[in-house]
Amino acid sequence: MSAEKFVHVVDDDDGVRRSVAFMLKHAGYRVESHISGVEFLKSVKLAKRGCVLLDVCMPQIDGLVVQQEMAARGIDMPVVILTGHGDIAAAVKAMRAGAVNFLEKPYEKEDLLHAIEEALKRIDRLDDRDMKAGEAKIRLASLTGREHDVLNGLVAGYPNKTIAYDLGISPRTVEIYRANMMEKLRVRSLSEALRIAFIAEESSDEIIAVKAPLSHPEQ
Questions:
Q1: Alpha-carbon distance 33 to 11, whole Å?
Q2: 12: closest CA among 49, 46, 60?
Q3: Residue 209, CB half-sphere, CA atoms under 13 Å: how many?
Q4: What is the distance between the alpha carbons of residues 61 and 44, in angstroms, rounded to a whole number?
Q5: Could you tell me if 82 and 56 are in contact, meaning their C-beta atoms sit under 8 angstroms apart?
Q6: For all residues of the chain together, what is the average pLDDT?
Q7: Strand 79-83 versus strand 51-55 pairing type
Q8: Full-prediction pTM beyond 0.85?
């Protein structure tokens, strides 16, 4: 099996490392587990190139810091971030820093395998790493004003409750707009929607203009 099918699992939870490694090995991947971000960074220069499955919440240094340190050292292995449920702010930071995808715990096996395959394609260069800005703009142009508002909130890292408060609508209505937005953008995950927004944002400040939040209720 080629190095491109190699996965580094970085998580301080022994049970998670064992279960994920077991799952991935049976799916045909080579796996190396790391007990912390610090331990991973110590060995990363000599590590086999592959996908890095990186937990956000770890002692000493968290996953976002590990990701930043990888970039600073010129380690270009694709990263899939694992976040706690509803931790959109951490996911947005990770995506802006170059993560290929993120998964909210608990996640389904199929979602994990899909995220890893997407990351490994980055190594193989089998897919277009950077969606053309024109395509991103075309997809975004299909959204209604309210769908744009919801996407703006997600890009800012806000949960549905906060977006609903800002827009003066119910969280359930936000969920509906969010579902419609993802269907129009032709994406299956929030990380893919964020990637489209970031590509458009980089090409034109007018495409995604994230507004400052109103005063928010306790979250």
A1: 8
A2: 60
A3: 5
A4: 15
A5: yes
A6: 83
A7: parallel
A8: no
